[in-house]
Design goal:
CATH superfamily: Flavodoxin domain
Distance between the termini: 24 Å
Number of strands: 5
Strand content: 15-25%
Helix content: 25-40%
Bound molecules: flavin mononucleotide
Structural class: alpha/beta
Order of helices and strands: EHEHEHHEHEH
Radius of gyration: 17 Å
Number of domains: 1
CATH class: Alpha Beta
Number of helices: 6
């Protein structure tokens, strides 16, 4: 019997490169074993088209309209584990991650893809950084992703919260780093 290899997709959704969320994600990923395949995509390198709600249109149907969309869709379907790496922007996920999630609604309606069925059972993780003193400000982001996982019948694997404002801040925050190193191991046991 062959056991499917674990494949982690890290979707980076910050509006800058090499910021705290990316750094924290790299710290967390360093604990994954070598037999776990890692795929890293920056949504800023793969901008998705604007989302259109044509669900109830009489003649129009959804299709994949760009290479970037195809890349992100294929990586999403191939992953066993999807890691949303988004900073807290206005208490929630960044605009590029929100757009990515909106596209799930389109991808569910693509002919021949069976998106919702294939997403069911995958693990959804979140890695985020924020700058407020009170981590409660990240709660809408957590709830958004947890409820999305529930809707999609995915397994919600939890959130790694890191503290930082300027790039590199998170590396000077021992609590964030300690949690990062243990994140996939501790939350993966559930
Ligand atoms: C548009 C925008 C909105 C933000 N909103 C929040 C917020 O609601 N709560 C918070 O704690 N930090 C907020 N921040 C600060 C970022 O979460 C923080 O700087 C984070 O480290 C940025 O992540 P990055 O370094 O990975 O880009 C915001 C930053 C930006 C640019």
């Amino acid at each position: 019997m062959t056991i499917d290899k674990k494949q982690f997709l890290f979707l980076l959704g910050s509006a800058r490169t090499d910021g705290n969320t990316e750094e924290l994600s790299r710290q967390a990923a360093s604990s994954l074993s070598d037999d776990v395949k890692q795929v890293w995509l920056r949504l800023s390198d793969h901008p998705l088209p604007p989302f259109e709600d044509i669900r109830h249109h009489e003649t129009r149907k959804y299709s994949v309209t760009s290479e970037h969309e195809r890349t992100v869709l294929d990586a999403t379907l191939a992953a066993t584990d999807i890691v949303i790496a988004s900073p807290v922007y206005w208490y929630n996920v960044s605009a590029s991650i929100k757009l990515y999630l909106d596209h799930w609604s389109a991808w569910m309606r693509l002919d021949g893809v069976d998106f919702k069925k294939r997403m069911a059972g995958k693990n959804l993780w979140a890695i985020t950084t924020f700058s407020d003193d009170d981590p409660a400000g990240a709660q809408p982001l957590v709830d958004c992703l947890r409820l999305t996982a529930e809707y999609m019948k995915m397994h919600w694997s939890g959130v790694l919260l890191g503290y930082g404002n300027r790039p590199g801040d998170v590396l000077d925050h021992p609590d964030s780093l300690n949690h990062a190193v243990a994140f996939f191991e501790v939350n993966g046991k559930g």
